[in-house]
Structures are given as C-alpha cells and as structure tokens.
Amino acid sequence: MDTVDPKRAVHQINQRLSLRKPQAEALRRLDTIVTDIDPKKDTDVELARDAVRATYGNLADADFGDFERGFPSVCFALATGVGKTRLMGAFISYLYMIGKSRNFFVLAPNLTIYEKLLADFQPSSPKYVFRGIEAFAHNAPLIVNAENYEEGRGVRGTDLFGKEGAIINVFNVSKINSEARGGKSPRIKRLQEYIGESYFSYLSELDDLVLLMDEAHRYRGTAGARAIEELKPILGLEVTATPKSVGAKSQEFQNVVYRYDLPDAMEDGYVKEPAVGTRANFDPKSVSPDTLEKIKLEDGVHYHEHVKVALETYARQNDVKVVRPFMLVVTQDTTHAGQVKDYVESNDFFGGRYKGRVAEIHSKLKGEESDENAQRLLNIEKSGDTDIVIHVNKLKEGWDVSNLFTIVPLRASASDILTEQTLGRGLRLPYGKRTGVEVVDTLTVIAHERFNELIEKAKEENGVTRKLKQVTIGEGGDVAPTKPVSVAAPSLVDQMLSQAEAKTKPTVTVTEGESDESWVQPAPQAGGLAEAPKPFTFNTPEEVKVARTVLDQVLPQVSKQVRSIKDLNDPKIVEQIADTAMKVAAQDPDLFSSVTKEQAVAVTTELCKNFVERTLAIPALTITPQQQVSFGFRRFDLDMKAWNFQPLSRELFVQVLRTEKTSIISGEEEGETASRLEDYIVARLIDYPEIDYDAHAEILYDLAGQAVAQTRARFPGDEDQSLSVVRGHAKTMSESIFSQMKQNMWREQTNYRVSLSSAFGELRPQTFDTAGAGFIRDFRTPPDQKQDIRKYVFTGFARGCYQYAKFDSDPERKLAVVLEKEPGVRLWMKPGPNQFKIFDANGAPYQPDFVVETNTEKLIIEVKRLSEMTAPEVLRKADAASLWCHIATKACTAQGEKPWSYLLVPETDVQENFTISGLIAKHTRIPDADLLARYHFEDLAPATTE
After folding, report:
1. What is the distance of C-alpha 426 from the center of its chain?
2. Claim to verify: residue 217 and residue 356 sit in the same structural domain
3. Are residues 897 and 869 in the same domain?
4. pLDDT one-digit tens code per residue, 344-389
5. Are 762 and 881 within one domain?
6. pTM of full prediction above 0.70
7. What DSSP string runs through 777-832?
8. Is pLDDT above 90 for 201?
9. Shortest CA distance to 580 belongs to which of 944, 943, 946, 164?
10. Is residue 479 a contact partner of residue 112, using CB atoms and an 8 Å limit?
C-alpha cells in the first residue's frame, strides 16, 4: 500500500470517520508525538520522553512527565461516552496509512469489552470503526483473537498465503494485572492461556507492533506491567476515562497527553445533562423524614412515568428502538433498602401497581459488587421488566447504562449526590447523541431537601458543571467471571479437517481453577448417539493444505457465486474451486507445489461432498424497497402498557444543573373544562399538521376514548382522579397516540427487489464455557438442577452441525432429543454469535434458538415459556422470522432448495414423545397478511455461477 502524508492522513480520517472534537484533537496530538519521536524498535526512550514532555508537560488539558514503561507509551483520558473505541480505530488507521505499522495488539480488560471490541472491528457491524477508511475498503484488517490464532487463520496463516494489510490482535487480558494470592508469582499466565507462548514470542519480535490499551488503568499493576513490557511494542496508546491506577493506593498517571473530562463532555453534548427536581413551593422541613422519603418516591415515580411515555413516543416518532427506563433509589443500608422495597411494592404505594417490578440490589461484601449483582444490573438495560431499582449506598464503578433517567437518593448529602457513583451511572445517552428532546437527554435527581444546596454546589469550581473532582466513570469491576473450562466447538467439517491435520485424535486437556491451562477439547462421551466423523481419505500434508485452503478461503467466496449449496457437487464447479485453490498456492510455491491438478480436484471433491452433507445452508438475502408509498391512518387498539400516569395535584419543578434551565411538569392545567374527557386529547391531536380533523374525527375520538377508558379503569368511580390524569397528561398522551398512529398507517403495496447474495454461510467455530469438566455430558442426560443448565455443555449428537451445544433451558435440551430421534431430520444447529441474525421491526437483531433441516423443508424453531408466547417482543421477533422464512422460500425454491417455516413453540409442547411433524402442524407461524401485502416479489435475482 502507498503511504499517505501524516497531515493528509489526519485530515482524511477526521472526515471519513466524522470524529468528534475530542477524538480529532487526540488524533492530532498522536500525529505530533509520532512526528517528534519516530517510534521504532530501537527508539531512545529517554530522548523520546524529553520530546513529549517539552510539548505536553505543562498544558491545562495534559499532564505528561514520564512514559512509566520501558517503551514510549502515552495516555488519552477521555470521558465515558465520548467514543474511545472509535478513537482506537482512528489511531490504527493513521499509523497504517502513514506506513508506521501494520501490526497492532489491542488489550481488553474483561470478556464483555473483549466481545464488544471484536464486534466493532467487524465490517458487518453497524459500529464498524473503519467504515469509510479508503485504505481498508477493499482490504479489511485481519482480526486475530483467542478463537482463531491457532487455526491457520491468524498472522502466520496470513503471511503464509502472502496476504498484505493491517493485522489487529484483540485479546482479553482482564486478569493480567491481578496480583497473585498466597505469595505466588504475579498472575500473568492469563495472557499465555489466550495466545500461547510461541505466538506471544512471535509478536514480541515484530519490528512495528503497536499496543493499544483499552481501560488503561487495568494494566498498571506489577504483573500487568511486566507482561506488557515483554511484548516490546514500538509504541503504547492508552485510553481510559480514569487516568489513575486501581487499588487503595491509586496513583495518577504521569503520561497523559490529552484530557477531556466529564464536564467538557456535558458542555459539548456527548452525555446527558444532569438536573435536579423538587416540588414547586414545597418546604421539606414541614414534614417528617419518613414522610419526606415517601413524597420523594412518589414524585420520582411521577417523573419516571413521564419519561417512560416520552421515550416510547420518541422511539415511535423516529423509528428507533424503544428505551425502557428505570428509576434508581439509593438507600443507606440493607435494612433501609428492605423497608423501601416493602413500601413501594405495597398497596399504599399507588395501589400496589409496582409490585413485582422492583429490584433490590445490594452486596453483603463491603466495598465491592458481587458478579451476580453486577449481572443483574446489566440485564436491567435489556429486560425492560423493572421500573424501580433499590440499591444500597453508592453504585460502584463499572456499571454504565443508558436507560437510567431518574435517581432518588434517600438520606444522601449533596456531596454524595454530585459524584460519579450517583450521577455517572446514568449519564450515557440512549441513542449515542443528544436528540434535542429534553426528557430523553436529561438525567434527573429528585432531591427535595437538597435542591438549593445542589444548585449552589454545582456552581463551585469543583462542581459537576465546572470540573469534577475524582471522577472515575467507566472503570470496570476488578474481578471478571471465572471460567474453569472452555470447550472449542468447530463445525464437524472443520473438526474432520483438523483431525487430518493432526493425524491423530485431538489432545484432551482439562484444567480447572488456578491450573496452568484452561482450554479443553473433550472427547465424545461413550454411549452417545454420535459416532466419530469418518476421516478424510487424503493423508499427505500437502493434500490437507489444499483442503484447508478450499474450506477457509475459497468456499466463502464461492457461496456468493452459486445458486445452491448442492452446486458444490457439480464437477465443473468443483474443478473451478480446485483451480482457485491452486492459484492461491501459486502465490507461495512452497505451500503445496507438489500437488497435481488431479489431486487437487480429488481433494476438493471429497471436501465439498462432506461440506454439503454436514452444512445447514442458510441463505443471505438482500431486500431493497423499490418505491415510495403513500399512507393514511387505520383503526387500531392503543398500546398503553407503558401508561401509568398518576394524578398530579402539585407541580414538579426541574432545573438543569449546568444551564440552570427550568421546566415544570404540571398535574393540572388552567383553562376551561371540556364537556367530555376525550376532548382534552383530541384538542392536542389536531395540532399535528398530518391530522385533518374532518377526515379523521372518527378515529381520533376512538383512540381518545380508549385512553379515557384505560384511565377510568385505573380509578374506578373516581371521576376527579380521571379528570386530573387526562387534563394533566393530555399532551403526553397525545404524543404517544400520534406516534402509534404513524405506526398504523395504511400503505400502498411496496415492491421489493429480493436478491440472493449468498447461497450458504460459513459454520463458524463456537466456544462454550462450563463450570468444570464434570459439566460436560451426553445431551440425553438432564442437568442435576434444571436451573443450572447454562453451566453445562452437551455432546453426543448424530445430526448436529456441531459436536457440542449449550442450551438456555431444559425444554431446549428436550427439543434436541426430539431432533436426534426424528428420522426425517437431516441436520440441526443452535446458531452461535453472529452466525445467523434476523432484524425485527425495531431494527434489533434476533438470533433464533434452532435452525433445522428435514428431508422436505428447513425450519427456524423458537422455544418460549407459555407466559411469554404473547409478549410483544416475542411476537415482534416471530413476525420478523416468519416474514424472513416467507422471503427465503420465495428466493430459495426458485433454485431448487427447500422451503422455510418458522415455529414458535411453547415449552409445554416440547416433550420427548412429540414429533417434529406434530410441532410443525401445530405451531407453524404464518406471516401477518397485512405485512405480506407490502411485499411484491417482482424481481428475484439469484446469484449466478461464474
């Protein structure tokens, strides 16, 4: 690749990645540093340090004194929510474009961030960090990680085949900086467990390796620092929101070359605005402390319900996913937390409407969160079934969610409230940027007794709106979940080829706890249904390399050129595949130059035959709308599940801390009384320019009538309460109704062009974690405790595309038993991450439970609890999947492939005496007729064989 002038590279990256102001400044400073010190393997570290110190040693937004490592390493301290991952992408793009490096090593502190980084470095990700970078447009960086570095797909495999381009190593080293217990040596073995000593040595010998440290404060311990030194990079780039080491004796970083703090992010609009709320004209001293707490909780709920509907309305209006908010109540101790929980779930608190929607989270371990509690907190962002979270004292670092909008601190001082433990947890923007809708962009603290004190304290020099003191947002938990045993599960074809490569059975290594190894490849259990796959007949190393080239490099491209996976048995196509493999070989004559054309064809024929037999072909479809549509409104039932408006006899007064802007949420509006309650809502609806009262009066009063009926049902016999709710919340109700009206427009039939972009996909290797070697068992044997099923890995399958599988519930395991016994089932699998996703109406990805191929058709099967069968989210995914099956059938049957069907099966119907044909007859879901009416398949464009 031709190198680019550094200044031009900075300009191009700024434009192509649309960098935010702090990201652009960080990139500019990297350019200056690289120009000044010209990092190389033999760089004089002392001279480089002096050069950087001369520029960044005495700036208001930098604090550089030393690299603090044996190689040049600088830190960019950016507040959480600004975009550190995109910044790392910009750094890599810059160093590659100017020719400084093509080898990068990215450290992730824990499994969650590791998986996020892997996803963001994939071109298929909507958050792909290199999107728009011309240098990577046709030659995306090779991503090497814990799952593929040993499989011939890593750096060594790339060099072997002569591929050029950037190589990014991404590894989870969350334990690397943990000091050993019991006087043992520092725990640096985690790094070796993931990448292996020989590969580690290979990396350390590279003359252009650049090290990027995400959450850099995790790599300051003795063990972590020592392991990083052994990598011998030419340059270290550290990113963190908290530039100080962890632990009781934390030290500020000395190598910060750019600091962009939380107050800066607030002013520039990259995080929510913190606000404080109270009752208008209310004297908190006029009531007892217990009564004050109840008032704050009630007003917190008022505001929370206001936010809930506003968020749903915003999502409907802008066709984005709905954010389900929750309210955080911070208590003093576990006793206090229990008392609060009892009260908010009692009939005395809004008639018991929040019973079952309250989560009490606390840890008995002083000073740290347990892994279990941290996971419960994280799930709140996804589940949407919790309105109130009660937590003891301050939330610890490492829990940053985007759906926290209301905080009610009980018995807390102003200083405690204005800290990252309280405010910082909820400052992330739900959509990644300010929306311009005040409620969506604001985090509000309900603090009646501290209102004025908070306002004044926020104005201080060290206040939240000026410069935060001791801000540590973004710091993750110190202890990552332990995984004593990991199981590698390649596809059966990949497994067969690996066996041919090894010439012997795979080595079985089982290690638990603190032993030196943690990777396990267990052998099939005796007595299972499965027999070991028959080995390939080719035996020479050269023939095996031909097969590996075909499987890893040629077939992924061929999938886009053939009409059906069955074409891989066509002798002409097999010959083309063999020719392509030989062309790859020609790039490196030492690879398998001794293989003849006839041998290559024979090897390819055998590999393709097994690939067709053992691969469940899932097509990749492209659906493109061909015309704009006109619309109108049709009658529908309002979705009011999120509506829980309460009568407001008092006004809530809210003031944004930074801007001091105020707003009032009023329970009762002034003005004339309408003749009927529906008039309040209709009067608001007709303000929308899209609504013509004369044309839509009937549906307007129908919808307003539904809203009034729901309100009266909640306050039976109390018309004053109903009046207070409707009159006080008519504006919010009308916003919600109009957003739903837009979702229920009639549309002219839309023509879609459906093309088959690929006939089948790669069966990617999967990796499973279990609680130990004793948790690997035959799939016909249920777990000892059914609630522990996620701890197990099951094996013994005859018809699975993989030798191993994990199940989320015992009914899923039972379905596997049915699939294995059913004579008509040919293949089945549980798709792994990024293997097969369908996007629902909200654009959210949906990964099906099972994909099955029978002798006559292909199935997507979802197993759900009976109570979840009618849940909106389940039905939305079912609609998307059944529509996908309809489209796939249209596209695939034209190529002689089997039709697709979607089954939504309650777990009560998954019994070992049931049959697949019985489930198909009972639970096949047909796409909604109105939905299908929008699809006109006028142009099926299958791929063509070249």
Report:
1. 18
2. no
3. yes
4. 999 888 888 888 888 887 655 344 444 444 455 656 767 777 889 8
5. yes
6. no
7. EETTS--SSGGGGGG-EEE--SSBSBSEE--SSHHHHHHHHHHHH-TTEEEEE---
8. no
9. 946
10. no
